[in-house]
Design brief:
With 317 residues, the protein is an alpha/beta fold. Helix content is 32%, strand content 22%. The strands form 3 sheets. Strands 1, 2, 3, 4, 6, 7, 8, 11, 13 and 14 form a 10-stranded mixed sheet that branches. Strands 5-12 form a two-stranded parallel sheet. Strand 6, helix 6 and strand 7 form a beta-alpha-beta unit. The chain is globular, with a radius of gyration of 20 Å. The protein starts with a helix and ends in a 12-residue tail after the last strand.
Length: 317
């Protein structure tokens, strides 16, 4: 963790005791989930003007390091605490709470000049391992050559997920490259017709009904008692591939519905972990994200919230 972050955390410790809706708190979040968490922070701070949540977007290891070295009391990551980690925090008088807040999908994106429309996880595993390196062996593509895989950054939980779920922990091939951020993945794919990017679905997905909402409008929309199905669209500057599992005949795009049904195969859970006492701003923000309002906000990002609020519609003839 950088000295600047450590200094910020230290200065926050000197602030007066917070309440659940006022004060200053820090949170360290897996960078692949930045789009979702930032919306949660913006709306929470709008509803509670005396609250300030300072986010740091890092790789997953930095998230857990910051929690376990007591630099922060909140993190967002793709796994829960181990029993050993929980015991350690409790030995430091931390009150540990953790909850799954969403199911994220990892999307595959290619340059629009690429003819490919879908890919199986078996083909993806061969590409990631370096066993398959030429586009024409995967899909007929005149003018395309060596496949180049791009991830968001070194140490990304996205990389770890692919290694664990598709390669059984084996090393990635020499055709796999790390960028500096999720936005850099888009730039690399847009500039290179041989590239394929792996990225969290919130970075490519937009709910057209809420895309142009201000923070004020988003906050007001959370007062509805139920959620509505998002009018989900993907970015147009890249092509989003459909993906099939080995036992599937059909391939599916990473829409919320197919994440919910389990048809889209590249999914992972996202957890929020809080190690702060009740009545503090950290616990207040944790309660917001895991509760009705925070979960409804997640529903508009393309990621599947852990709590799904449905709307009943009656059709009369």
């Amino acid at each position: 963790m950088t000295l600047a972050m450590a200094a910020a955390f230290s200065s926050c410790d000197k602030k007066p005791a917070s309440t659940s809706t006022s004060g200053i708190a820090t949170i360290v979040c897996d960078a692949s989930f930045e789009n979702v968490l930032q919306q949660e922070i913006d709306v929470y701070e709008y509803i509670y003007p005396k609250a300030s949540i300072i986010p740091y977007y890092e790789d997953e290891r930095a998230c857990f390091d910051s929690l376990l070295n007591l630099s922060t009391k909140m993190i967002v990551a793709s796994r829960e605490l181990t029993d050993q980690e929980q015991s350690y925090l409790k030995s430091k008088d931390r009150q540990v709470r953790q909850s799954r807040i969403a199911v994220d999908a990892l999307a595959l994106i290619v340059n629009p000049a690429n003819n490919i429309d879908q890919m199986s996880t078996t083909e993806l595993a061969e590409i990631l391992s370096g066993k398959e390196t030429e586009w024409n062996n995967v899909w007929p593509n005149d003018g395309l050559g060596r496949i180049e895989v791009v991830f968001d950054h070194q140490g990304s939980s996205t990389v770890q997920f692919m290694r664990d779920s598709l390669l059984n922990g084996a090393e990635l091939g020499s055709n796999v490259f790390a960028q500096k951020s999720s936005e850099d993945v888009f730039k690399a794919v847009a500039a290179n017709k041989n590239a394929i990017g792996v990225i969290g679905v919130s970075w490519i997905s937009t709910d057209m009904a809420t895309a142009n909402m201000s923070t004020e409008e988003r906050a007001a929309a959370l007062t509805d008692s139920v959620g509505s199905a998002p009018d989900q669209q993907f970015r147009k500057d890249v092509k989003v591939l459909k993906v099939s599992a080995p036992d599937q005949v059909n391939a599916y795009a990473p829409y919320q519905y197919y994440i919910y049904t389990g048809d889209y195969p590249l999914t992972r859970s996202i957890y929020m972990i809080c190690a702060s006492a009740g009545g503090t701003i950290s616990h207040g923000f944790y309660s917001f994200v895991t509760g009705f309002q925070g979960q409804k906000l997640i529903q508009s990002t393309g990621v599947l919230p852990n709590l799904i609020y449905t709307q009943r519609v009656e059709v009369t003839r």
